[in-house]
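## Example record

The block below lists the input lines for one assembly entry, exactly as stored, with component labels intact.
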Amino acid sequence: MSHDHNHDHDHSELPEIELRVRALETLLTDKGYIDPPALDELIETYETRIGPKNGAMVVARTWTDADYHARLMADATAAIAELGFTGRQGEHMVAVENTASTHNMVVCTLCSCYPWTVLGLPPVWYKSAPYRSRAVRDPRGVLAEFNVSLPDDTEIKVWDSTAEVRYLVIPQRPEGTEGWSEEKLAELVTRDSMIGTGLAIAPSELEDMA
Amino acid sequence: MNGAQDLGGQMGFGPIELEDDEPNFHAKWEERAFAVTLAMGATGTWNIDTSRFARETLPPAVYLSSSYYKIWTLGLEKLLVESGLVSEQELQAGRSLNPAKPLKRVVKAEDVAAVLAKGGPANRPEQQPSRFKAGDRIRTKRMNPEHHTRLPRYVRDVEGTIETVHGVHVFPDANSQRLGEQPTWLYGVVFRGPDVWGTDSDPKLTIRLDLWEPYLDAV
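Predicted structure tokens for the full assembly:
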């Protein structure tokens, strides 16, 4: 068996863990505990079907449909299920809304709890020690690193996801979007704006990006 | 437990590392580690609270220096051995040396969509009235259990206000120890920044956590 031997072990965590995961998968498959095609399907689901586009649809609907907005604020799990997003890591949803005077930001200081049904899998930074340690103590400092600066008198509500309740931030609808379709509005809704570490994209910024 | 996972309020970890257009997975092994963890979780051999405890009982130096999917992998190996599904020797060998144990279920590709859509709700029927209602003042317990808990250190022995009564939910402290679900009332509790961090706090900060009744005393 030939393989490239890497002498530079100091900064090569990856090969060791790669072999370890491969060995684990082989062992569990041998035992009949897992079915490899099911693993492929799990990966495919989160790579292609469940992600922040789901949440952006919820936000755009909330912005354009007052009845939907009321249903979402009363029972987010049911209102999100109306759009077909249910299940794992979204069983108990709560929507929290940003206003001119209040900004919401979500963290899980104890692990990596995140609303998978609407945002997909969490980014690495969300699960990292720098974010988890500081979000609850210095949210303005954290926001500055995301290039978000809020007026000093804005109330900042930080939600630490300690139970199975999952939080979706409804960002403020940008000005200058009157009459826009839901599909077009959804393009303004970033993942970070639904975690509360970002704001929705302004129409002028969208033109810059194009 | 007061492990490395309990990060709220700790200092010295440096800036947040942001990445443009971050992919879900940064390497093939992360995809596999993710999927193997979910697939083994779906066998029903353990619960979400036992898996969290398996991760947070990793040595702090290991926890803090590992990527999240590595933490998941190390936690999974621990659960597999604890549950008697595989031996240490088999983990080393990377192949089966002993007969397999029977499992409640094995997830097949065609079941994946349904399993994910169903999820695992944590709410349970109410057996008795809640002790608190919205607006009640509470103080969190001063406690330092060695078992799994979801009351972080930074909000122990702090006064707050009940904002939401979520209902009755599985109690992680018990469930993680395989003592049954022992469902109890779960509340949304709001704390003022200065009550948590003192004069160093942002005066406009409030922090909300979801906390179970046994964590709370009436004020």
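Chain A has two domains: 9-47, 50-209. The two ends of chain A are 50 Å apart (CA to CA).
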